[in-house]
């Protein structure tokens, strides 16, 4: 790491970093990994504890549990030995996976009058990492919690938001004007730094106190943002667009993918600790990667694909609001609790025009295998599953290991009242977490009351497999202790406010745009059809954003309708 931050402390103020001893190899975690996972994890190892040992089992009066996702069921793909189906169901199109890509594919089919399809989802609820929960206090997100107002390059997103009734009118430039009730209210962001909360969360908010040196670096950074935002190639394409498919392919821009964001900073001479922390935070927020492990192309995409002062749409359930709308449209076609364990293309000509598919699925509620026979399949599952599911795909794929995923822990804390001064997004400087968002922030009530805090923690160490194994070994008590240890820096009273904490573990939460991946051959070829199978997932873009998932879902649906001769109007 290039950041020279002071040692982390806990409780007594004693530095934790020197205390991390040779116990780390027992867990498979390096010293750097432990520092990335945070002080509580480091303290456990320094004390000689097993990573499974609860750091504190005394959370009296606080209820909760680890509530998902379905790791054990999904892992049956690797184990094999699943039975042969005895029942066959015929359908025109089968969609495998009910995340945003699969739901968007279903939405486009249904909207185009194509109703002969089924969507198969492993979890009890569709939505992928935009799923949500609800209790007596509020709805709350389990993952994605906002959607930036979409740019002109994302017409399918604009079409959807208009359909949802979120557009009040269109301006003279034909730009949509969104209902302010759904735009994020003030105060939007704050950061806990130097022992106090500071309003705002931007490079400028953080760098002002650093004096003339920090201001000079900030000016160079902001000038580079403007230059990339104003860039247009000979075809009028932007350097960084949403969706990625609309971005330029000019060599000088794609070359950024060959280096890390840290490399870019080093070459630019940007040594400001706070600027590096801020960009590292942004990379962890959108990608689950760090300054060191994020492609410079992906890093600049974060800052340059949207307007600097763009607005955000958000709801108590986060992007679950979008899932609800999509389910209202296609819910009758969704079959939950379905583990897809084998997909094969059936006979067809060289162009696949008369090909079909057979999808073997385990109904996990009845433990009964079923075969879906369809004319086309839309594979909207994460790409790493393809080698386990699709027969003969690919015969030889040297790029299969290029797809790596960051695990996340997300917790929802039900509190009797909000911490003082809470904004929508509350971030702790130099924390392993991303802080928390407030589910009730959009409420228009005046009197204070209970709320739900959604706490996000990407496990963004360089080796995600080790992070996943470590994550699945932790118990509820471990996570609660880590959460309290982190938030107590800013809220010493936090434990007394909490009545319930549920924890969601996402083993493969988001694709990692590591250097060389976004514009590498493995990612670019991942969208290529395989017989009667079309692919749809944000993995196809190399970054895990709603706009990308929706784009690939709609694209795959339109390709399938083209194959089958079903007339439709393109949303792209």
Describe this structure in words.
- This protein is of the alpha/beta class and 572 residues long.
- The protein has three domains: 20-70 and 405-511, Polyamine Oxidase, Chain A, domain 2, CATH 3.90.660; 84-131 and 319-402 and 515-564, FAD/NAD(P)-binding domain (3-Layer(bba) Sandwich), CATH 3.50.50; 203-310, no CATH class.
- Helix content is 30%, strand content 20%.
- The strands form five sheets. The chain has an eight-stranded mixed β-sheet.
- A hairpin with a 4-residue loop joins strand 14 (357-363) and strand 15 (368-379).
- Helix 2 (31-37) crosses helix 3 (39-46), helix 6 (100-111) crosses helix 20 (546-564) and helix 11 (261-268) packs across helix 13 (296-304).
- The longest helix has 19 residues, at 212-230.
Top keywords for this entry?
single chain; alpha/beta; Polyamine Oxidase, Chain A, domain 2; eight-stranded mixed sheet; 30% helix; globular
Give me the CATH fold name of the largest domain. Answer: FAD/NAD(P)-binding domain
Terminal CA distance: 41 Å
Overall average residue pLDDT: 88
Shape: globular
Main β sheet profile: 8 strands, mixed
**CATH homologous superfamily label of the largest domain:** FAD/NAD(P)-binding domain
How many H/I helical runs? 20
Percent helix range: 25-40%
Structural class: alpha/beta
Query: Beta fraction of the residues?
Result: 15-25%
How many domain units?
A: 3
**CATH class placement of the largest domain:** Alpha Beta
Q: Strand order, biggest sheet?
A: 1-20-16-19-18-17-9-10
């Amino acid at each position: 790491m290039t950041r020279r931050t002071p040692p982390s402390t806990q409780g007594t103020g004693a530095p934790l970093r020197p205390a991390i001893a040779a116990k780390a190899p027992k867990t498979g975690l390096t010293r750097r990994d432990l520092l990335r996972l945070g002080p509580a994890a480091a303290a456990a190892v320094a004390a000689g504890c097993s990573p499974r040992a609860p750091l504190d089992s005394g959370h009296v009066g606080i209820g909760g549990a680890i509530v998902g996702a379905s790791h054990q069921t999904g892992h049956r793909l690797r184990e094999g030995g699943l039975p042969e189906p005895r029942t066959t169901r015929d359908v025109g199109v089968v969609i495998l996976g009910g995340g945003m890509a699969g739901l968007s594919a279903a939405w486009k089919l249904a909207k185009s009058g194509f109703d002969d399809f089924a969507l198969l989802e492993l979890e009890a609820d569709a939505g992928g990492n935009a799923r949500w929960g609800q209790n007596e206090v509020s709805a709350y997100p389990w993952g994605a919690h906002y959607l930036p107002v979409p740019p002109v390059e994302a017409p399918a997103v604009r079409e959807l938001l208009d359909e949802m009734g979120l557009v009040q009118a269109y301006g003279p430039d034909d730009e949509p004007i969104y209902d302010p009730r759904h735009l994020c209210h003030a105060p939007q962001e704050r950061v806990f730094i130097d022992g106090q909360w500071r309003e705002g969360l931007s490079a400028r908010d953080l760098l002002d106190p650093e004096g003339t040196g920090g201001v000079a670096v900030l000016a160079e950074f902001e000038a580079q943002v403007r230059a990339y935002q104003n860039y247009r190639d000979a075809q009028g394409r932007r350097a960084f667009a949403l969706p990625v498919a609309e971005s330029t392919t000019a060599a000088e821009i794609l070359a950024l993918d060959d280096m890390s964001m840290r490399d870019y900073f080093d070459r630019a001479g940007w040594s400001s600790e706070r600027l590096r922390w801020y960009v590292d935070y942004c990379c962890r927020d959108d990608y689950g990667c760090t300054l060191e492990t994020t492609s410079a192309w992906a890093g600049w995409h974060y800052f340059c694909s949207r307007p600097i002062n763009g607005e955000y749409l958000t709801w108590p359930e986060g992007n679950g609001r979008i899932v609800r709308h999509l389910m209202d449209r296609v819910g009758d076609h969704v079959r939950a609790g379905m583990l897809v364990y084998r997909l094969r293309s059936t006979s067809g000509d060289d162009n696949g025009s008369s090909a079909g598919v057979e999808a073997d699925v385990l109904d996990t509620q009845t433990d009964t295998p079923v075969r879906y026979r369809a004319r086309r399949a839309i594979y909207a599952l994460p790409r790493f599953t393809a080698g386990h599911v699709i027969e003969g795909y690919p015969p030889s794929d040297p790029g299969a290991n290029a797809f790596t995923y960051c695990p996340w822990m997300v917790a929802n804390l039900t509190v009797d009242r909000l911490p003082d001064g809470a904004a929508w997004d509350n971030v702790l400087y130099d924390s392993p977490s991303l802080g928390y968002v407030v589910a009730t922030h959009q409420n228009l009530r005046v009197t204070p009351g209970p709320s739900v805090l959604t706490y996000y923690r990407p496990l963004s160490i360089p080796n995600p497999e080790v992070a996943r194994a470590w994550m699945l070994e932790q118990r509820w008590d471990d996570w609660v202790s880590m959460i309290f240890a982190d938030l107590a820096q800013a809220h010493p009273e936090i434990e007394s406010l909490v009545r319930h904490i549920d924890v969601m573990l996402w083993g493969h939460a988001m694709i990692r745009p590591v250097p060389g991946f976004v514009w590498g051959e493995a990612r670019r070829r991942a969208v290529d059809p395989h017989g009667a199978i079309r692919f749809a997932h944000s993995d196809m873009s190399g970054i895990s954003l709603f706009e990308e998932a929706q784009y690939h879902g709609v694209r795959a649906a339109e390709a399938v309708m083209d194959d089958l001769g079903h007339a439709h109007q393109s949303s792209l």
